[in-house]
Write a sequence for this structure.
């Protein structure tokens, strides 16, 4: 089990190195947004960051923000999204959705998009209509979730909500962080870089009143008159925490993050009595598309059965693959739609083999006799009519798979390279106040970003952008609240 740090009592501190109103721990997107808003609300702000500069995993990211409700980009692309439609979708798609958190996010999204642009985070007025994992162009808007997947498309009118920062390449997050860090510098924050927060400080009433941090081998104490905001990112670099909450990721999958995403904020919160939530929640993904024609294939498990609509968001599909017997699955194609998966990072490009008939393919994949033949016959019978009564794949992706020869790719969890981000973290309310294991709020303590359990809590309900979108939004909420505490 990961070690929860000691808690320090303020009466035991003889000298504070720093005194300020609000302390922000971590300078990724949640921390930068928290610090900016706290400062603009009139608070003195000290940011303590373990790395030699701000950025965190946020600066490494693809720069997709999940935002909606009628942003300027959605309007320019001709989509009439509303906060209500976005809320209905996120609640229906959510595995353990928190109605208050989702309501606050959806209601505030349009203003938040405008705010990001006002800070200098650039978003083009452009739309990509296809199905992709990320874009390497400057094109902004794209469908990045399960909005068009059954049953969600019947619950809420689908709208594209992935907003990518206008930068070419895979690393658009660095442009967003560059803009936010520049605004932080202008705002006159105090910063301590190369400084690792190692403990929280509480007073006699249990209120969090500061932190201990280590810098150049020396320990310091920083006092926060109004509050401490934890924004240290996820825990996918902490092997002990992974072994406890998602042992199957160790050795099988690659963490997406930076070295200091080691769960420090979660453990610090726990030292003050905080509760955690959805700690086994993870988005682990290895998309078999693009090219999108592969979505017209079917995925089967070792029983030869389909188990997920193939047009699902790749993270949802991956979650279902991980749950199959032996974590195994095959992508079955016929000659009309055959292509190699384009994203070689995931190593799906290993073709198992090609076969003249379905019967031979079934034997070649060592599936139970008759199983794949039955599955395909059933699928093809309905696909001819543009229907999929079993899993409701959208008619756009349906075609009978009858044009031999046939081929299969092994897309099993332990055969491909799955990349993952942890989704669990400190339990907070919609105001980012940290909730204790006794259900009471911990005074003076706030959390935002990937160290808090937020809008998405499971790979089945994730959409690309549901880290940067809510992380930046709730970072701002935390900053404003702590400043006025
Ligand atoms: C390659 C890649 C692509 C991604 N693409 C996307 C995307 O397009 N859209 C999306 O929504 N998400 C994406 N993600 C995930 C997303 O980037 C992260 O979930 C998100 O940036 C987390 O933000 P954060 O502010 O919570 O944490 P971070 O940005 O990781 O910031 C946390 C900061 O806290 C600091 N810190 C940690 N511990 C301490 C300590 N004890 N004391 C002081 N400082 C500490 C760290 O050094 C770090 O700077 C991607 C991630 C990667 C790696």
């Amino acid at each position: 089990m990961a070690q929860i740090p000691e808690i320090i009592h303020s009466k035991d501190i003889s000298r504070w190195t720093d005194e300020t109103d609000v302390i922000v721990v971590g300078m990724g997107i949640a921390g930068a947004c928290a610090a900016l808003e706290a400062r603009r609300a009139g608070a003195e702000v000290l940011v303590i960051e373990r790395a030699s500069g701000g950025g965190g995993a946020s600066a490494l990211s693809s720069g997709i923000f999940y935002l909606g409700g009628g942003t300027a980009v959605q309007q320019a692309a001709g989509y009439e999204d509303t906060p209500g439609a976005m809320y209905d979708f996120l609640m229906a798609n959510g595995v353990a959705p928190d109605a208050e958190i989702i309501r606050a996010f959806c209601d505030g999204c349009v203003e938040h998009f405008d705010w990001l642009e006002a800070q200098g985070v650039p978003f083009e007025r452009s739309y990509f209509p296809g199905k992709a994992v990320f874009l390497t162009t400057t094109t902004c808007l794209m469908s990045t979730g399960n909005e068009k997947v059954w049953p969600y498309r019947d619950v809420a009118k689908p709208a594209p909500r992935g907003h990518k920062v206008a930068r070419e390449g895979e690393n658009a997050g660095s442009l967003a962080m560059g803009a936010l860090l520049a605004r932080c510098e202008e705002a006159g924050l105090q910063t301590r870089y190369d400084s690792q927060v190692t403990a929280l400080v509480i007073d006699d009433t249990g209120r969090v009143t500061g932190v201990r941090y280590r810098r150049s081998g020396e320990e310091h104490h920083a006092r926060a008159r109004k509050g401490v905001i934890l924004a240290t990112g996820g825990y996918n670099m902490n092997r002990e925490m992974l072994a406890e909450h998602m042992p199957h990721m160790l050795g099988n999958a690659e963490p997406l993050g930076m070295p200091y995403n080691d769960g420090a904020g979660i453990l610090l919160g726990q030292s003050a009595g905080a509760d955690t939530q959805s700690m086994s929640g993870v988005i682990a993904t290895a998309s078999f598309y693009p090219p999108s024609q592969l979505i017209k294939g079917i995925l089967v498990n070792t029983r030869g059965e389909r188990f997920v609509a193939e047009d699902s968001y790749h993270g949802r599909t991956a979650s279902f693959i991980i749950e199959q017997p032996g974590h195994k699955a095959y992508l079955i194609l016929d000659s009309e739609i055959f292509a190699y998966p384009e994203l070689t990072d995931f190593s799906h490009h290993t073709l198992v083999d090609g076969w003249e008939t379905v019967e031979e393919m079934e034997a070649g994949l060592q599936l139970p006799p008759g199983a794949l033949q039955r599955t395909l016959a059933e699928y093809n019978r309905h696909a001819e009519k543009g229907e999929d009564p079993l899993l409701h794949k959208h008619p756009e992706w349906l075609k009978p798979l009858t044009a031999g020869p046939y081929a299969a790719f092994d897309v099993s969890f332990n055969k491909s390279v799955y990349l993952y981000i942890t989704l669990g973290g400190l339990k907070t309310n919609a105001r980012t106040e940290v909730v204790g294991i006794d259900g009471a709020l911990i005074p003076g303590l706030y959390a935002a970003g990937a160290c808090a359990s937020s809008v998405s809590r499971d790979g089945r309900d994730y959409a690309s952008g549901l880290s940067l979108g809510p992380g930046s939004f709730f970072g701002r909420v935390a900053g404003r609240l702590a400043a006025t505490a």
About this structure: The pocket of flavin-adenine dinucleotide is lined by residues 25-31, 48-51, 56-58, 60-64, 196-197, 231-234, 256-258, 260-261, 264, 421, 449-450, 464-468, 471 (CB under 6 Å). The chain has two domains: 1-281+423-485, 287-416.
